[in-house]
Structure prediction request, 591 residues.
Amino acid sequence: MSWFDHADPPIDVLVADDRISAVWHPPGSDADVVVLDLQLTPTRGQEFTALRALVDGGRRVVVYTQDLSRDTAVRCIDIGALAFVTKSEGKEHLVAAVRAAAGGRSYTPPALSGSMLTDDAPERPQLTAQESAALRAWFNSSSKNLAAAQLGISPKTLETYISRARVRYANVGRAAKTKSDLVARALEDGLVGLDDLASRPEE
Amino acid sequence: MVALSRGDDGAQVAAEPFLRGLRIAVCVIAGFVLIPSGLIRNADVYRPLGVQLAAWALLAAVVAVEAVLLVRHRSWGRARYPVLVLVLATSVAALLTIPPEQATSSANWIYGALGWTGLILLFDRPLPWIGGFLAVHGLSTALVVIGVDRAPADIGLNLLVASLGALGFPLATALATATVRRVAGQAAAASRAAQQVRTEEAVAVELHRARQDRFAGLHDSALPLLRGLADRTLDPADPDVQRACAIEAARMRRLFAETDETPDPLLHEVRHGVDFAERRGVIVEMQARGRWPAPPPAVRRALLEAPMAALATAATRARVTVLGADDVLSVSVVADGAVEPSSGADGVEVQTARDQDQMWVEARWTIQPTPASPSPSSTTTARSATGS
Prediction:
């Protein structure tokens, strides 16, 4: 993919295949990051099986999909995908998402931000007002500069709020290595404290 | 018992004549059982007679008032409760002026009459009310009768037989009333459900037609493009062709994402604006997330004005979002080369920010608990923020 060729530093595409099995043997098994299209699975209802197998196998996965629905996005990050990028956001966000995932970090493009904000599942984590405001501004503007300017904070602080919200998501629901790594890294970086993570939704 | 809201649909209206017929019948019966034959025949046994006459006059007055109410299509309303207490107290007083040994004879005319008078007063109340009233009535008479030492078995049997008419018949009538009312309630619920299904069906058909119209639009725009690419008359390397493809792809994504099953006037107008921009050759990404109640029309206009103005002046690309979360509904447009739009009104806050050639316009409305509430203009604010 030319986005990866033109990335700086460039990202090597080891294998591009329409079969999931390609990621399990060389050269696919050597990849740092798997970019998964949910529509690859032939049967409906099996969309998440491949993702779950990859995450359980310890792979870092970026889901890249046509599917815009909120529930799909939230489900993917609950399973343990490090990023969820919709195809319409690919040009601006796929390279950044893959780079973040390679370092075991999450990446939250605007559409995922909107999905997290409007998630009304009972197990959704409680977000602070600052985190909600950051997710809203990021979803609506899709620009860190514009969103930060509206909230009167620096783009760096905006990123911190978004990452914090994302770490809260990694800390609830299904257990997965990529998720616990994400939480551990956030704790190391001082992005969140143990007190933040202990808080659960009141309802 | 089923509590009914009055007169709001067909099935219940259909039940009204039956209930009215029953009410007239109860009034007529109550009038007939008051024909004072027992009272006149036994005029010499009462001590004193005056209490009996007063009781009779009171029950007759209740029947008379009921007749007037029936003619006027009115109910007893709250007046029933004091009248009910008065009637019960009078009947006990009347009972006590009858020699106990006469309590199961025709001298106790009030035993047969009071049940029907009670039914008049409690006709539109739930069944347990009239049940309770009849129980109190039967019990008070039975207590007086039990006080009589002579031939308890004989007198008890008399009371039982008398109770069949005095308590049983009014109770049966009350049961019939309750049944008619319950069936009417079920019919009303079924009619409401059917009406809702019909409405949903009509809405679904309408949405389906609107969607088909838009998909048909793809035939005119996307098909020639695909055909040209297939037969190589269009060059994929040509920037114009690439741009046309990008516009069609964005349009298709938007159509595929339209899964809402209820018409939303706000989204409808946003899509209209997006359609218009696409026809000008602008690549538009649109995303809607969350839930919101339909805002009042004035708020909807205020929410749309600034973002739609930005969309209408977008040069090449625009991103449109509608977001309902945390009690705030927002319509937001990020576009290139847009002019400065107007500020907010009607409780809608508009914020504008600019970063190089990107212009971001966001209109926000705090979702009101009652969307129809008037005078939202007291919270009008307009602010402006400028990015780096």
